[in-house]
Hints:
Shape: globular
CATH architecture of the largest domain: 3-Layer(aba) Sandwich
Bound molecules: pyridoxal-5'-phosphate
Order of helices and strands: HHEHEHEHEHEHEEHHHEHEHEEHEH
Strand order of the largest sheet: 1-7-6-5-4-2-3
Strand content: 15-25%
CATH class of the largest domain: Alpha Beta
Amino acid sequence: MSKSKLTISVHTGSAGDPQYGGIVNPIYPASAYDYDTEVLYPRYYNTPNQKAAVEKIAALENAEDGLMFSSGMAAIMTSMFALLKGGDHIIFQSDLYGGTHHAALTVLNRYGIEYDMVDAVDPKNLELAIRKNTKVIYLETPSNPLLTITDVAAIAKIARKNNLISIIDNTFASPVNQNPIDFGIDIVIHSGTKYIGGHSDLVCGVMVSSKKLTAKIKASAQHFGGSLDANTSYLVERSLKTIVLRVQQQNKNAVAIARFLQKESGIVKVNYPGLKGHPGHSIAKKQMKGGFGGMLSFEIKGNPDKFLKRLKLIKKAVSLGGVETTISAPCKTSHAKLTAAERASAGISDQLLRLSVGIEEAKDIINDIKQAL
Ligand SMILES: *Cc1c(COP(=O)(O)O)cnc(C)c1O
């Protein structure tokens, strides 16, 4: 029986408490278990709270299996190193999370792993970059901070045709809005620090996929050791019970704020895939079935520092996906390591601000922006 995401988020992975009849999962902090049956050990990714959190996320993403990690980057790097060896080639879309971009630039070559970064808005560019030694295609949509949209189904098809493994960083969309496995993607990764945790108070990562690919990644993950502890795993599973409610409210708020910003004279440009004028709107509509997400960015006419100082409700902070609305300047955060010229060519001006929309009343967020403008 197929269940709705609301029901999955509350019930899946909730084994309950048979000993006392409590209705939530107990926390099992043990790092030592009797070895006569299966050997349980946190770094083997098989303890009860890890499994409960993974089951819920896998069910939300229509995946068979998965692994919880101690951060989003642990999930990303472990998956890459499990699938690639020296002499292999990986193709990244060029709009990438800063941490992934920097890791590719500074780490992969040291291990003899070759890579290209291509503009994937036109999927043909990806196909043209495929070489004899290409093994993996890596996507991220909507992208950070310009919210560009890549066509997940078109790229999954290219990957399948060429026998390549496709990975997507689905953090910005969350499992509520976009389920790439339905479009033929092999591996879905989340920084669970963002929408999955949802309260700006934990760090974790997750990969979900088929049983076969999960087992392959697990074989390396046990050696790299980036597993998640029982307490945080419990908190993740607990937080997921409200992910659908949170993200639905964030979707609704973001649409209202994007529409408001579009009409404001103090705003030059709004990047939000839910707006009809966004170049990726029709593809986003096809693949973001739950909604267009809680992330948007915009350029302001005036001095961005003065604007940020005048905000009262909206907090200036890195990271995203929490219940509170936060704002950041990509030129000082995610893209601070680039030169001004590199930022300009990437389309990231000093006037660009990125908003992570929370679950507050939309009117209150809009009023805060209004008074600060
Ligand atoms: C935050 C983030 C990551 C990295 O996750 P951590 O939990 O900070 O390691 C990866 N991808 C995207 C899109 C992110 O926003």
